[in-house]
From TrEMBL:
Organism: Nocardioides pocheonensis
Signal peptide: 1-38
Domain Plastocyanin-like: 84-188
SUPFAM superfamilies: Cupredoxins
Keyword entries, A-Z: Copper, Metal-binding, Oxidoreductase, Signal
Protein name: Copper oxidase
Length: 435
């Protein structure tokens, strides 16, 4: 689904197709979306903590997929809350002590590793591999016993950026089962920067985590039935952002119909404006799966400023960030990317509103009798639309699809336009009063 300016005709056709599908999905999936409540219903949500202490419970539960399936999962939840996929997003400050208390309700031992963090301790001892009597490794770190064990991990938060936390015990199986979450380390004194560089500043109202993963439902069924796991037949069928597959990715955080999948993945921004909207959004990509996820937003590239918790900078502080149209996220990797939308040169509310004119009837999109596609390439005020139509656009905003470009990963069990896919919504520069 790459779009280029050279393929104008095909691009327009594709836009019609995608627009149709998206508007249908948006109508079906996002009834409660609201720009007024954007800060609470969209974007990164930090788990509650006192003095950077988190109480997590490893447990089991079910999540739903858009094709009506139900998947048995293991995951971390807040001990004060319930089962959720993925685990809670842990937000901490670089250089400060972090405590994670793991309580285990699973029928086998489990643990947490914090890749990228140094000096991790487990119940006061250095975190280190655990061996059985014959020297075989049973866990990457000290684990909590099955059925009610617990273990306390401590470390000092390292370099600012984004990290996975995940099971270090029987990792192939337990991580596949869902034992993973995001750790966001913020620079001390600069919660609005990705790293310690001033040029990594972002708008805290537009901060997003995209935790990418995959599920082989047959393997999960085997675990649920206490059957042996057959890795020779492993095949992922579901592909997720934050534990949800498209179109559930578009629904707001804590959507009532996704009780154990609290995190949405809709990116909702306005165009860059030097005075009213100067700072970009940030998207923190993480891969908890087994293969590369070539994540590909349409319509704009993104600026990669951090990988694996390290700022992209030279030894003399040269800026080594770069623009990328396809964000390759490797297994275990994190990529932090800044993103803004440049439309200011086209649009001015008073001097150049670019009114949307009604195109020829042959250029209008008519589904059944009544859905209208404006053909306008510009963001702006919506203006009048023909009467007796179904209106799928609130205020002149754009929706651009963003998805894994390994198209198998953009499916729900093979059904396309699902899986690891979401939408970037760009409101007109003046906002979306129609909401
Ligand atoms: Cu595409």
């Amino acid at each position: 689904m790459t779009t280029t300016g050279k393929l104008r005709t095909r691009f327009a056709e594709r836009r019609v197709t995608i627009g149709l599908a998206l508007t249908a999905l948006l109508l079906a999936g996002v009834p409660a979306m609201s720009t007024a409540g954007a800060a609470t219903s969209e974007g990164l949500e930090c788990a509650s903590a006192t003095q950077q202490t988190f109480n997590l419970t490893a447990g089991d539960g079910y999540v739903s997929t858009p094709d009506g399936n139900s998947l048995y999962m293991w995951s971390y939840g807040m001990s004060s809350g319930g089962f959720q996929l993925p685990g809670p997003t842990l937000c901490v400050v670089s250089g400060q002590k972090v405590t994670v208390v793991l309580h285990n309700t699973l029928p086998e031992e489990t643990s947490i590793v914090f890749p990228g963090q140094r000096g991790v301790t487990a119940d006061g001892d250095p975190a280190q591999p655990q061996l059985n009597a014959t020297g075989g490794m049973t866990s990457m770190v000290q684990a909590a016993d099955a059925n009610s064990g617990s273990v306390t991990y401590e470390f000092t938060a390292g370099s600012p950026g984004t990290y996975l936390y995940e099971s270090g015990t029987d990792m192939n199986k337990q991580v596949q089962m869902g034992l993973y979450g995001a750790l966001v380390v913020r620079p001390a004194g600069h919660p609005d920067q990705v790293n310690n560089r001033a040029d990594s500043k972002f708008d805290p109202q537009h901060e997003y985590v995209f935790l990418l993963s995959e599920v082989d439902p047959d393997l999960h069924l085997a675990v649920e039935r206490h059957d042996p796991v057959d890795w020779s037949s492993y095949r992922a069928r579901y592909f997720m952002i934050n534990g949800r597959s498209m179109p559930d990715t578009l629904a707001p955080n804590h959507a009532s119909w996704l009780p154990h999948q609290p995190y949405g993945a809709l990116v909702h921004i306005k165009p860059y404006d030097a005075s009213t909207n100067p700072d970009p959004a940030v998207i923190r990509y993480l891969n908890a799966g087994t293969v590369n996820y070539p994540f590909h937003p349409h319509g704009s590239d993104e600026r990669v400023v951090n990988t694996d918790g390290q700022a992209l900078a030279g030894s003399n502080a040269e800026d080594l960030s770069y623009l990328k149209y396809d964000i390759d996220v490797q297994p275990g990797q994190s990529v932090d990317a800044l993103m803004d939308w440049r439309d200011a040169e086209h649009w001015n509310a008073s001097t150049n509103p670019i009114p949307t004119t009604i195109p020829a009837i042959t250029d209008q999109l008519l589904v059944g009798p009544d859905t209208w596609f404006s053909e306008s390439p510009y963001l702006g005020s919506k203006g009048a639309v023909p009467t007796n139509i179904t209106d799928n656009n609130q205020c002149g905003e754009y929706y651009h699809v963003a998805h894994s470009h390994a198209l198998e990963q953009a499916t729900n069990y093979g059904a396309t336009f699902g899986g690891m896919m979401t939408v970037f919504r760009i409101d007109p520069p003046a906002g979306c009063p129609a909401n």
